[in-house]
Amino acid sequence: MAVVLFALLATAYLLTFSGEFSSIDELAMYASTESLVQIGRLARPQVTFAPFHNPVGAIEPAQSLAAAPLYLLAQRFGRVNNIHAVLLLNVFVTALTGATLFVILGRLGYRRVTASLVTLGYGLATTAWPYARSLLREPLVALMWALATLGLIIWRQTGRRRCLICCLVALGLSMLVKVSSLVAVPAFLLAIALSTPRPHRKRAWAIVGAAGLLALGMAMGILVWRLGSLPSIASYTIRYPLKQSMLRAYGLLFSPAKGVFFYSPVLLVAMLGWTRLWRHDRVIVLLAAGVTAGVLYLYGNNDTWYGGLAWGPRFMVPLLPLLAIPLAEVLGDRRLVVRIPTMAGIVIGMMLQVPAVTASWGRAVQQLPLPLDPDLPWYDLRLWRSSPALFQVFHWRAEWLNLLWWHSLSDGSLARDLKLAGALGAALAAVLVILSWSLFARSIGRRALVLSATVAALLVVMGSAVLLWRGYNMTRDYPGLSLAEAREIAAIVSAKDGPLPINLVSVSNEFHIYFWLGLLKGRFVHHWLSPGQTEGFEPLLETLLPARDLWLVVDRVHLQPDHSGRDAEHWFNGHAYQASGKWVGGFEVFRYVLPQGDLPTRPVDCTWADQIALRSMGQGADQVRPGDDLLFEFALEPIGEIREDYVFFVHLFADDGRKVLGRDGQPQYGGAPTSHWQRGERIVDRRALAIPADATPGEYTIVAGFVRPDGERLPARFGRGEVGDHVELGRVRVTK
């Protein structure tokens, strides 16, 4: 039954799968997952831009470890979007949390039908559903706390120590998901102590104390790893803002803006069962109350207690399974006067979730002044009119549809895949039939139940496979970067070296263009820089993969007025060899050859217009093959006053005078314009010529010179030789 309920929730989540991130926190978690697989570290160079726009802190490792197998799976298939695969994590995690809740209720003695309704109430009538579409960590914390609760209950009933160990391990893992999960540890340890038989309680208290100290030490270690030092404990004790924390607790629990009972009204109905649950199992009530108090205490002293622009009370999501348990007591009441409001609460809860899981909810959140005013007076009843939950319900628009199989593109057209919708809908309907048969059939053998669970699990696997397969063509786009352009950039970046590693640096201040990263395949490391970063690029060369090439993708569409977008490009022009540049829509894509050591250098004596002297020249090779890169390094020096910005050209000519190849551009391709040169300084210009794959074997002459802005070439002199408009700097042979 637990497997069938898992399948029902999972297929419902697949049907409402969106395939996109709603916050930079999700991109940061995806970045950690990608780095873990690609370079074996939890580094996040993909969000280097964040401090300039929307800072994100360090992240504990467990979420990335859990998502890594999905990323690895996506990398094995060319037509699977990496981001879609990783976003399946919370689909499975939330469905598994529901299945765990079902087992918990069964262990507490509730009937299968009652436990199933509570599970569906948790999975489909609370904010667990919207968060199943995200990559945020709260759903995984909810699973860890649910597993810890299950381990505690089984240990109480059977005395099996391994179940108690599993409970403690789940608590430890929850802190590796999110270190703030430490607030749940005291409540669980108290529950363990109270569940110990009286003759052994003194020993139990000692063990609990030791476990508490171990958990505290573990949390402190994680904090030091994340922050570099321990935060002040005084801010949570001596200087704790009691009055403000009470307002924030009201905001998290009851406010129409962020209250968990407002976004998940089924939990209000569940409140009716707390008294009966107290008579049934006091330890579970104390556990739920203690964990809730810990969460409220923690975020009562947190300025971002409201979770930013997230949907509803983000930080209360881990509590949802515990808060749903007393719903079983209410559903077990045979009086219609209780059952009818209970079922109505579940239905209303589902009606609140459906608009949030089928359509974009950004407008609903942003129309509230909350993101701009953390000190909003939560007791002000006028907030009811601006409640995001109600706004989403009463202002729902079909054009806001935000499903993988039905969403709007940036040009206003619709992207629809009704075959994908039909396949996922059929899987959901089939699992629903299996669940109904399993619950209400009069006589079912164990073998038939196992078979039904197996079929239900296979439907989840097949639904996930179909979603990833057909979902590749339904990848999102964004104004300024169409899906066709995204695919072209991904193809260009991946085309040069095939199976070899890729070094990628992108420059953009627009978070929402991340979607094209899901199209990248193979081994690579990606640094995402901000156009606002003007220095500090040196560490890039230390964190690149041992590959010869580097790709630089610069977003020229979304630049802010005060950003040039050229700083990273000019830095690479001075430290690597630019080999090509191409525009894809409003994005400029450059390929660089990274330095592999010093080039063989020879002195050169040539000048241009008595203004510029070439002192030495480095050349990578005397012989190259078609498809190779020919590297050059020119040491230039101003010997006269230069008032204009000249273009420096390097060309290859065949013996018949035909130009085969050339690269024109200001010195360092704009990074060192000649009008800025000062006497006495030496400018090193590095550039690469990519030999065409169809180049004819033979000898070629290397020609260089400068061009004025009006197109006229500067007169050149080689040593004491004759004056011309260029100089010949040697020969190179192209072999087969």
**Classification by helices and strands:** alpha+beta
The fraction of residues assigned to DSSP E strands is 15-25%
Biggest β-sheet description: 6 strands, antiparallel
Count of distinct strands: 19
- How many helices? The count is 26
Please, what is the average pLDDT?
Answer: 88
- Stretches where pLDDT is under 50 for at least 5 consecutive residues are none
What sort of overall outline do the alpha carbons produce when their principal axes are compared?
elongated
Helix coverage percent = 40-55%
**Which radius of gyration do the C-alpha atoms yield?**
32 Å
| Cross-sheet strand order for the largest sheet | 15-12-10-9-17-18
- Domain count: the total is 4
Give the distance, in angstroms, between the N- and C-terminal Cα atoms. 67 Å
Characteristic terms for this protein:
736 residues, alpha+beta, 4 domains, 5-stranded mixed beta sheet, elongated
Q: Can you characterise this structure?
A:
The protein is an alpha+beta fold and 736 residues long. It has 4 domains: 1-15 and 404-476; 104-375, no CATH class; 483-593; 601-734, Immunoglobulin-like (Sandwich). The chain contains 26 helices and 19 strands. Strands 15-12-10-9-17-18 form a 6-stranded antiparallel beta sheet. The protein has a 5-stranded mixed beta sheet with strand order 5-4-6-8-7, sandwiched between helices. A hairpin with a 4-residue loop joins β17 (716-718) and β18 (723-724). α1 packs antiparallel against α5, α1 runs antiparallel to α22 (418-440) and α2 crosses α4. The longest helix is centred in the first third of the chain and has 27 residues, at 201-227. It starts with a helix and ends with a strand. The mean pLDDT is 88.
